[in-house]
Amino acid sequence: MPFPQSKIRNFSIIAHIDHGKSTLADRILEVTGALTQREAREQFLDKMDIERERGITIKAQNVRLRYTAKDGETYQLNLIDTPGHVDFNYEVSRSLSACEGAILVVDSTQGVEAQTLANVYLAIDQGLEVLPVLNKVDLPSSDLDKTKQEIEQIIGLDTSEAVPCSGKTGIGVPDILEEIVKKVPPPKGKEDAPLRALIFDSWYDSYRGAMIMFRVVDGTIKRGDKVRFMSTKIEYEVTELGTFTPHAASLEEIGPGEVGFLAANIKSVHDTKVGDTITHAVSQNHKPANDPLPGFKEVKPMVFAGIFPTDSSDYPTLRDALEKLQLNDAAFSFEADSSEALGFGYRCGFLGLLHMEIIQERLDREFNLDLITTAPSVVYHVYTTAESTDTMVIVDNPAKLPPPQNIQRIEEPFVKLTVHVPQAYVGAVLTLCQDKRGTQLDMTCPSADRYIIVYDIPFAEVLFDFHDKLKSVSRGYASMDYEITGYKPGNLVKVDLMVNGEPLDALSIIVHRDRAYNRGRGLAEKLKEFVPQQQYEVAIQAAIGGKIIARETVRALRKDVTAKCYGGDISRKRKLLEKQKEGKKRMKQVGSVEIPQKAFLAILKVDQ
Ligand SMILES: Nc1nc2c(ncn2[C@@H]2O[C@H](COP(=O)(O)OP(=O)(O)OP(=O)(O)O)[C@@H](O)[C@H]2O)c(=O)[nH]1
User: Fold this and answer.
1) Which atom of ligand 1 is nearest to 136's Cα?
2) Is residue 405 over pLDDT 80?
3) Cα–Cα distance, 522 to 192 (Å, whole number)
């Protein structure tokens, strides 16, 4: 018998980054007896190493809990933890699609921030019941009245029953559980209808193949059932069904309204698609559903960079690793690419810089690959002077920009940027946005000492160091969120770098013409810092369309690493040579000069 839907509550926790989602989620696990105190202290839900180190949540995790409420009934709570960073909004909306309610965590020492609002809108759009809670009440700077006022004025949610709580001490957590039972509506799937289950996550397990996380909407799925993925029409026999409690637990069946995972010896990562609907294959007992569930909006990568193996024999391993990562992360894309400077590799698409860094780290850690990543770029729409009707080309790699004489105009992506900031820093934020080619759209002051500033600004300008700069001009008080709005023409040019006359295609950038000279000079100076001295002079030049705009010279020097060794200490000498070899791993030969990986990333740090 499936679990009665009237006793199921599916909910997510949403918040601005660092407002305490993961801590609260762990505390909920502890209060319901799913975790021991020790496990809870270790932040169980943030499983991946990278997450734990950086203290951020990347992949949504979900857990099934049993909770006996004050009404004496036992409920099944399915808790979906969601990431808070703007790069991962798509994961938030996916997780929300498996829920009927969301707990909105607001840090009562900080109040409503940019991503509080962005996340709450995602939940409201999906028709979820939103329950605000006021977190971190254990801190002396907690201000419940001000936080409630902001939630009411900025978001428009009633806070008369908002629970004050602390994920740290556990205060208020039992009240939150009661609120969930009382206010989150139970699922209303059709028990007797053909099976329809929504895939909202998947990952790769080296023993069991592709694993799928899903929410059953109608019908029931059982172990041994033959199921069909509606978009690909491929059929598999379910070998394993389960849920996380939070430890993985096997199940015989998963009924309407429930969440769980399945394994089915799915070897090809292309057979499973997040957003697809699972139904039954035709059999004596089962009839497939006619219509799939509405899937998800496809997420398009917004930022592109080249990833190249330092050792070209790693190329096939890199492909395999990228495929596996893609299964776990639908927003990540890649295609084969080649560079004159770096050889064969892949052009990869990401949602933002944090997303890119995480993929890079996972490739490094989980697959032990030595890689060079090029400077990231946004996607440009380039209108050429070609006579054909289709004159727009999409350029996600500055090296592929057509020659200037063939370009009619270049359009770049713009975002609507929203910044929340206290009054004292409004001036500094306006100057920063202006400096980044922004146009002010709106400025409001919805509550005492909180301004909301909205700008129309090129995506390329917010992509790189904007967040760091915003934090520094506002002493950490400003928060931001952005959404892509569309494309507009810009006066853009490509700046190329050359080392001893050899073009470094992987370092080309597209910038606004007004900044091109400064950027070119800055890039050449920066690159000089990273090019190791050689036995001959090395010229570093920056050029716009063939015209040299800057030149730096790395003086010749013969560096003998063993010079320090005297007295013929062979083992020490060998060690030094070994060390030097190690350091060379992350270098790339360009003509006769080796460029270290650091140089590629340092390009981003050049003041724009
Ligand atoms: N004093 C106090 N600190 C808290 C409380 N809840 C969370 N914190 C701290 O706030 C910081 C952020 O908490 P997390 O739970 O990692 O925040 P999050 O919202 O999950 O952050 P992301 O996963 O990065 O989105 C951590 O240092 C926590 O220890 C609380 O109730 N009281």
Assistant:
1) 31
2) yes
3) 67
Whether residues 498 and 558 share a domain: the answer is yes
Q: Both 334 and 442 in a single domain?
A: no
Model confidence over 82-102: pLDDT tens digits? 765 556 666 777 788 889 999
pLDDT for position 53: 53
Same domain? For 28 and 154 the reply is: yes
C-beta separation of 56 from 17 below 8 A: yes
- Is 370 found in the same domain as 384? no
- In whole angstroms, what is the distance from residue 470 CA to residue 48 CA? 28
**Which of 22, 23, 171, when mutated, tests ligand 1's pocket best, judged by the most ligand atoms within 8 Å of its CB?**
23
Q: How many domains does the chain have?
A: 5
For residue 231, the domain's CATH number is 2.40.30.10
Report yes or no on 289 lying in a domain.
Answer: no
- Give me ligand 1 centre to Cα 21, in Å: 6
Closest-lying ligand 1 atom to the alpha carbon of residue 16: 19
- Nearest atom (ligand 1) to Cα of 19: 19
Beta strands in 310-352 (DSSP E): 333-339, 343-350
Nearest ligand 1 atom, CA 165: 31
324 is in an annotated binding site: no
Q: Would the annotation count 22 as a binding residue? A: yes
Q: Ligand 1 mean position to 209 CA, how many Å? A: 34
Task: Between 216 and 566, name the one with better pLDDT.
Answer: 216
Domain span holding position 471: 380-489
Q: CA 261 → CA 3, 216, 275, 411, distances in Å?
A: 16, 10, 14, 43
Contact yes or no for 172/103 (Cβ under 8 A): no
What's the gap in Å between 427 CA and the centre of ligand 1? Answer: 30
Q: Is 559 annotated as a binding residue?
A: no
Q: What tens digit of pLDDT does each residue of 317-344 get?
A: 999 999 888 876 777 889 998 887 778 8
Residue 362 lies in a domain: yes
- pTM listed for this prediction: 0.73
Please give the torsion angle defined by the CA atoms of residues 193, 194, 200 and 206, in that order, rounded to the nearest 10 degrees. 140
Residue nearest to atom 32 of ligand 1 (CA): 136
3-class state of residue 532 by DSSP: coil
Mean pLDDT of 50-58: 48
Angstrom distance (rounded) from CA 7 to CA 17 = 31
Residue 311 binned pLDDT confidence (cut-offs 50, 70, 90): confident
Q: Band the pLDDT of 157: cuts 50, 70, 90.
A: very high
**How much distance in Å is there from the Cα of 20 to the middle of ligand 1?**
3
Average pLDDT taken over every residue of the chain: 84
* Higher pLDDT pick, 58 / 438: 438
CA of 463 to the centre of ligand 1 (A): 26
Q: Given 183, 213, 231, which residue is the final one in a domain?
A: 183
Strand partners, 235: 228
Q: What's the 23 CA to ligand 1 centre distance in angstroms?
A: 5
292 lies in a domain? no
Say if ligand 1 is within 6 A of residue 135 CB.
yes
